[in-house]
Amino acid sequence: MNDSAAQPDATVRLADYRPPAWRVRRVELVFDLAVDATVVTARLHLQCERDEPLHLDGEELELLDISLDGRALAATEYRLDARGLTIPGARDGSMLETRVRIAPAQNTALSGLYLSGSHDSGFLLTQCEAQGFRRITFFPDRPDVLAQYTVTLRADAARFPVLLAGGGPDGTGTLPDGRRWARFVDPYPKPSYLFALVAGHLEKIERAYRTAEGREVSLRIYAEADAIDGCGYAMDALERAMRWDERVYGRNYDLAIFNVVATHDFNMGAMENKGLNIFNAKYLLADPETTTDDEYRHIEAVIAHEYFHNWSGNRITCRDWFQLSLKEGFTVFREQQFCADMQSAALQRIDEVGTLRRVQFPEDAGPLAHPVRPAEYTAIDNFYTATVYEKGAELVRMLAGRLGALRFRRGTDLYFTRHDGQAATIEDLLAALGEANDLDLSPYLAWYAQAGTPCVTAQGDYDASTRRYTLTLAQQTAPTAGQPEKSPLPIPVRLALFACDGRRLPLHLQGEPASVGDECVLELTQREQRFVFTDVDARPVPSLLRGFSAPVQWQYACSPRELALLLRYESEGYDRWNAGQQLAAAAYDALHAGAQDRSALDAWCATLADLFEADTAQLDPALLADMLAAPSAIELGARHDPLDPERVHAAREAIEDALAIRLGEVLPARYHALRQSESGALDAPAQARRRLQGRVLALLLRADPPFGAALAMKQYEQAQTMTDRLAALAALVRAGAAQAEQALHDFRARYDGKPLVLDKWFALQAQAPTREALARVQLLADDPAFSLHNPNRVQALLGAFARGNPVGFHRPDGAGYHYIADRLIEIDALNPQNAARLAKAFESWHRLEPQRRAAALLALREIESHSGMSRDLADILARMRD
Ligand SMILES: [Zn+2]
Predict the structure, then answer these.
(1) Nearest partner of 638 among 595, 603, 589, 574, judged by Cα
(2) Cα–ligand 1 centroid distance for 332 (angstroms)
(3) What percent of the chain has pLDDT over 70?
(4) Hey, which residues does 172 pair with through a beta bridge?
(5) Where are the beta strands (DSSP E) in 49-128?
(6) pLDDT over threshold 60, residue 2
(7) What share of the chain is helix, strand, coil (3-state, %, to 5)?
(8) Ligand 1 centre and the CA of 316: distance in Å?
């Protein structure tokens, strides 16, 4: 045994990449499984590529035996340290056998082989991405070593009735000592991070599926007995995802069995192990009584995401971890396309852009900023970020938009054919997309290399005498850590021009022979460019960056009147919502600055009131619901340096209050109409109606608190769905209503023993925007249902507080920071990945106003002074402090 935390941490650089000196052609693994001590025997069939001593990664492994080509090695014939094993005597064609002991029940980091649930009845499972396999056995644990896996599991049949591993089953039987064995062979060579096994008491549901190519596949979803009834929705979603990938990308599933397993103990959302996906139960289990509409959408999205990885990730994997976005950015994009097809495309886009602005933009603007393809890392676990995933998806979206659907498909076909069975790079993807269409897409590589969010400014000038409208676009990216100089990037700016009566104008671009229609895409490739539109009758209102055509910040001096016009007349859901968000931000700016000018606020409230009161048959209720909310406190807070989160929150509250009061009289009637048509159905119209109803209820609590709270309590009690019940409870807690305590008490009793529902209960209270929320969080941390061992629970209470409570976490006395710092030290000793994720709540500390900034710094120093910090947490802290 050894302690990896005690080792100095080397920085790994993309520029230093070299192909592996040693490959493993075949690996045979035998697991003698038990909860406290599992013995792993590994036979590696080695291939030497370069004359270097064989080095294998290994962490926290107890080496029992080692032999090379059948001969036991003396202690002088190998070198063992905290990071692995070096064997100078290995030759090309050698077979190395190691036997190691590991302790699954002691593995609180949830990386490698670990126990989910209780010692006596829980089950064993693995998580290997990115570097968990080295905590199972000695191996060249890097994604460009592709090996064929034969895995034999041996275990007590009563304790571990279900045995699963990736690939396909290849025999089962009973050992002389009475234990059962089961063997699995994966015909597709794969990197070690895609290895998986599961063993224990599990139930399954099963469905037969026939691929478009005619392969019969058995789809199986496993969960513990008390959760198996909640797997049906995920099975339906899986089938939809498989059909969609056949139709849209021509990709078929390639094994006879596709297993999915749910666990409550998981660091990530889910994992795409070949033939054996493992899911955080949060993204798999669903039932009408406890699952909200949003959660149904998330489950469908994550099921699809992991399934799509079978091609974009598994059949073609990453050459090294710097290429993580090759599989993640592309797969998130595929998932987003799928969700837009299954659900409302407008809502989907609003969700995506909201996530970027709330999570990725702050990351890109802070000390943790990094390129979509990082140039270096010390702890790769810390690069599973919104930048790699969500910004990475936006880059693929730009490429897809540049090519159009048909040519993009031609490009992905070439990519999948050309690189099947390989470990590829981002250059490989761009080359295939380009070459299939005789285009050079290499200028887009700069997007992958440059951190920071470009800011695009626009200036419009209309000349009535020549009937010309000149749009000057300029781009600029602020310096980020290690990148003081920034280059201009290719930025597609989709735009339309509106006349003052709300008509979209036909566009005549100077230099183009004919009209380009009423929408076009301008390619901004320089620092500044000018685009001239001719035959424009009157000064137009531009709608810029339609559909969020590039992941950039936008600055255009629109008047409130112009934004209100777009809010009223924009035909596309996302653009209409976005105009409203900009108008709300302008209203917020004026209020925050203490300005007398209320024109933006008046325009926002009046336009929304008109839309709300009008016959809304043409307006999706879900879209209307989203339009009735101001941008998040995080987005608004990004406009300030120095930042006072409590003051941001107060100004945001004030504009939402103003909207509620403006709508005041019409809210009750609309609320009752929405309530009356509630049937508990789960179809899209019912979900949209519930979304609007929840929003109207929240506004009612602002417009008339006693009346609104009484309605909320009634909705809480009579709710037919979790969406309605949770919306009512959230509104009560948020408003600090007198009934909140009673409802919280009831909720806890009603859903006792349902962990995913209890997570919501913890999160709601942690996010109540008051300074007293800290005392509540401290109390909840002592609740018997709370555990620092469980990542979902930690994120539900401490993550929700630190990331989602601008008032409680950011108390000016620093008590919120201090409290989270203490918990971080405790969590880090158990689960470094979970601690590092929570620590990111401090990522904007340097922008805080002086008093809070000093308090946050003190809290960070307190963590830093603690000895024995993990590599993951130390890396995050060091980067935040640089
Ligand atoms: Zn993924």
Answers:
(1) 589
(2) 7
(3) 99
(4) 182
(5) 54-57, 62-68, 71-72, 79-81, 84-87, 95-102, 112-116, 123-127
(6) no
(7) 45, 20, 35
(8) 13
Question: For 726-758, what is each residue's pLDDT tens digit?
Answer: 999 999 999 999 999 999 999 999 999 999 999
Q: Which two tokens stand for residue 664?
A: 């005041």
Residues 6+ apart with CB under 8 A from 372: 325, 329, 387, 388, 391, 392, 395, 447, 448
Give the end-to-end CA distance of the chain in Å, rounded to a whole number: 33
Both tokens of 133, joined, read 């396999």
Q: Looking at the predicted structure, is the pLDDT value of residue 9 above 90?
A: no
- C-alpha of residue 305 to centroid of ligand 1, in Å: 6
Q: Compute the distance from residue 196 Cα to the ligand 1 centre, in Å.
A: 16
Strands 147-155 and 71-72: unpaired
Summary mean pLDDT of the chain:
97
CA–CA dist 589, 600 (Å, integer): 9
Task: Assess contact for 872 and 7: CB atoms under 8 A.
Answer: no
Whether residue 7 has pLDDT greater than 60:
no
Rounded to the nearest whole angstrom, what is the distance from the C-alpha of residue 309 to the centroid of ligand 1? 7
The model's pLDDT over 549-584, given as tens digits with 9 standing for 90+, comes to 999 999 998 999 999 999 999 989 999 999 999 999
DSSP H or E run through 880: helix 871-881
Residue 436, judged by CB atoms within 10 A of its CB (0-12, 13-18, 19+), counts as: buried
Angle (CA) 22 416 394, round 5°: 100
Instruction: Count the neighbouring beta carbons within 10 Å of the beta carbon of residue 293.
Output: 22
Over residues 390-417, the mean pLDDT reads 98
State the distance from the centre of ligand 1 to the C-alpha of 414, rounded, in angstroms. 22
Tokens (6 digits) for 728: 């009512």
pLDDT digits (tens, 9 = 90+) for 465-521: 999 999 999 999 999 999 999 999 999 999 999 999 999 999 999 988 888 899 999
For 258, the token pair is 């596709």
390: enclosing H helix or E strand? none
Residues 106, 115: Cα–Cα separation, whole Å: 8
CA of 557 to the centre of ligand 1 (A): 38
149: CA distance to ligand 1 center in Å? Answer: 22
The catalytic position among 28, 272, 300, 306 is: 306
Q: What is the pTM of this model?
A: 0.98
pLDDT digit string, tens, across residues 660-719: 999 999 999 999 999 999 999 999 999 999 999 999 999 999 999 999 999 999 999 999
Active site (annotated) includes residue 394:
no
Statement: residue 3 has pLDDT above 70? no
- 618: buried, middle or exposed (CB in 10 Å: 19+, 13-18, 0-12)? exposed
| Gap from CA of 185 to ligand 1 centroid (Å) | 24
> Which amino acid does the sequence have at 836?
A
CB 716 within 8 A of CB 750: no
